[in-house]
Design goal:
160 residues, mainly alpha, 5 helices, 0% strand
């Protein structure tokens, strides 16, 4: 059952990676073209937003790679190791980079919201910017728990 569940997790990671790749290849160029045509006054903001979204793809794929490494460690029964802590630390750092880029991009939505008279766009952008923060906090929590578990395990091994 354990091998089956890790393969399901690997499949989900692959699907997420393919979805983001499709968005980068097909959706973001269309956002750039459509946004520049619809909001000529905010064309520079649209350009910077699209560049920022492309920039977030890099740490996203690094985090996916680290997640695949973590799943591989779980398959090899090495979940309680320093490699797992390192993978979680890298996932946490990637989440921080993504959330920083998203939060930094929220003010770029203001010219678009101003032209389109849509103040909810700023709120929507802020909500999307908070999603990687949740992943970062969860990865930091798991990193700490795993570090404590490894410490406890090593102390327990020494007493036996």
């Amino acid at each position: 059952m354990k091998k089956g569940s890790t393969w399901i997790l690997r499949g989900a990671i692959l699907v997420m990676g393919l979805i983001v790749l499709a968005l980068c290849v097909f959706a973001l160029p269309n956002i750039w073209n459509g946004g520049s045509a619809e909001f000529p006054a905010a064309s520079m903001s649209v350009f910077l937003i699209v560049i920022g979204l492309y920039a977030t793809a890099i740490p996203f794929y690094v985090a996916l790679w680290q997640t695949l490494k973590l799943v591989g460690l779980i398959d090899r029964n090495e979940a309680f190791s320093e490699l797992s802590v390192r993978a979680l630390r890298n996932i946490k750092r990637c989440g921080m980079v993504i959330s920083t880029l998203y939060i930094g991009g929220v003010p770029l939505l203001y010219p678009i919201a101003e032209v389109d008279d849509a103040p909810g766009l700023l709120l929507f952008g802020a909500i999307i910017a908070c999603a990687p923060v949740v992943v970062t906090i969860f990865a930091a929590l798991l990193e700490r728990l795993l570090t404590d578990a490894i410490t406890f395990k090593s102390e327990n091994d020494l007493t036996v």
